[in-house]
Amino acid sequence: ALPLIESGGNFDLLLTDIVMPEMDGIELAQKAAVIAPQMRVMFITGFSAVSLRAGQALPQAKVLSKPFHLRDLVLEVDPQDANSVIVGGSRMYRSRDGGQSFSVVAYDLHVDWHAFEYAPSDPTVIVAGNDGGVHASYDRGNSWVSRNTNIAVTQFYPGIAVHPTIPDFIAGGLQDNSSLWGFGSGFWTMSAPSGD
To answer: In terms of pTM, does the model score above 0.70?
Structure first.
């Protein structure tokens, strides 16, 4: 990447992993910033400590946590305002200046956003899906409400456990929603609320 930047190419974004052989992504970004200070930087990492180091070294850079899939990077543009952009991944971000800057929205809702859709009949309405179900905004994303009435969105990690001497006692860990246990009646009890 560095030789391409040094050649004078016009690049808007440097997207780099942090942990790499020879030169790590932080060093690459610092050298690139000297050559092309207007270029934005986004780091990719699966290590939270490395993510913290990247944020300290280049506070204006964004960090994308692994693992992720391209389908996890969701983008929608307001059909009546091309400068209003919503991007989803682990959190939801919105830009009001065509992608020049982003801020977190819907911070109090569930993580891992997978889909957004503006209602064709009313572009003030946005319907979105995340690991916690379906949410809707009726004011272009300024506020959100859950639309999860009677929707089951629980996803168990592999390895649901059955008690060795009480066969009706079952326990399992959930994707982003703590753990559940039950006695085979169709009803579950949540253990201490937590994330993964």
So the answer is: no
